[in-house]
């Protein structure tokens, strides 16, 4: 069949050119599909066996695959230290992010306990830390504040006529809203995971996710300014400028005590966190500055009477113990269905991206569909215990990994730390200023605001991704978080459509002395092969861009098929008329000669001569020679110098896409240009 040799660094291949039929014979193409029929696959899925049952149980409960083989000697100490470190972080972040969700801080501690235990049983990632997260918290907070605004729980005091806010009733209803939204969000995630819909996150590109989290971080900052300045602005939905304008109006009412507490806490947190970053390799454990600040601020507030003397807002009474489970308010689902779905998608996108990052780093597989189910059940179970939606946290996950955590046993240890706090120590934080919790939120947003550095990087690498990033950021800031996400996804999908409609087209030329073919517009040394034009498209040809493809082909090759076809038709019509006239003249001459021969025959027949036969044959041969000359002239006129046009990277997936291809073939064949396809898929051959 062929010869393959390697000479002096060059690879030489010699083989016969095969058409489709020969290729099928040589490669022995199968006449039947190797995939079992649908009926057999359904039967196989319903068939039960012990190995299949074991695989199903292990895939549904991943904890059973690693817990029996857990080595206390190898992993115990690292998981213990990691769990304690993460548990210490859960305490301040849980209470701080509860303010973002507009629920009492103790519910942030509940959220750091129940869902973590569920994920330890069902999750496939060994290093991520499930719990409260700023973006998800602000999304829940936008729902609770919209459905339970302060105005609905304000009434006039009958004694002095002043407005009084029923904080207890408001907080109870907001917790109910948050729990109902969380349960519905979890059910969405479980259902999507059961139908193997984990790939849905692929529609959220990295620029979209990073732009969305940056915009959400802006909402987080604005929502916490009221605690930093100790003011009470009205609630707005829509453009962020309205909220900022209202905050500026209330700045003259700033509480000096709250502002001083905020500034001191911010300075201490920023300085110590920077020290943790600088001496990360030298410190065995990062300094738990958040917990230290909370303890110190609680002591100062308690002994300094900051609430009573300076009107600094504090957390208030924290109930001891855990809440009993209760059913969510199903009547709210119709109102929060859009918000719940947005929370489900964003939470899963953050969780799976972080989980796969650690999975690739440490060499294990993270099942996207099982992660969807695990996160959904974490939210569903947590919602029954008055928790709000959770996802993985970058800061806690990095601490869990860097301090030696190797399995989700670290998550169990962190849950024990949270449980001890809720049962015994929670009541001690009643005098904690809310401004300190807001400062903790501010400092933990540093990583999200560093994402603004994506702008110059994307400007250099990909302007379309930069456009997606900026549009997502603007939509998230100007619209609500759910509408901003929907608008961003729609715009991102439009960019995909536009990319297929406006691909990169190029004419390839050969680099002298090599077998490389590069774009002639980009590389000066790339020269076209005489008589052959190689045209390449960066995308597939299908019905929506076939006409654009043909236009680009004409433009790049310099061949206007329409004009050439028109000229050819005119030339052919003119030549046809000329040929008919010439043919008519030739036939007239033949007829005239036949008449002369006929007269001569008659004359010589009378004389009995034999010469007329020879003369007649000569005349007939002369007539036939004239006609054959005409045919040869017509055939020679059709012979033109052929040109070759080669397509590269063409792929088709449906039969009706061939219509566009066949039209291109017909048009170019009419102007005597042969077309060849290269890099085609099997279903493209014909």
UniProtKB/TrEMBL annotation:
Family matches, as InterPro entries: S04_transporter_CS, SLC26A/SulP_dom, SLC26A/SulP_fam, STAS_dom_sf
Membrane topology (UniProt): Multi-pass membrane protein
Pfam families, per the entry: Sulfate_transp
Highest taxon listed in the record's lineage: Eukaryota
Transmembrane region(s): 256-272, 284-304, 330-350, 409-429, 466-498, 644-665
Any single Gene Ontology cellular-component annotation: membrane
Compartmental location: Membrane
Domain named SLC26A/SulP transporter: residues: 78-472
Keywords: Membrane, Transmembrane, Transmembrane helix
An MF annotation (GO) of this entry: secondary active sulfate transmembrane transporter activity
Annotated protein name in UniProt: Solute carrier family 26 member 6, like 2
Lineage: Eukaryota, Metazoa, Chordata, Craniata, Vertebrata
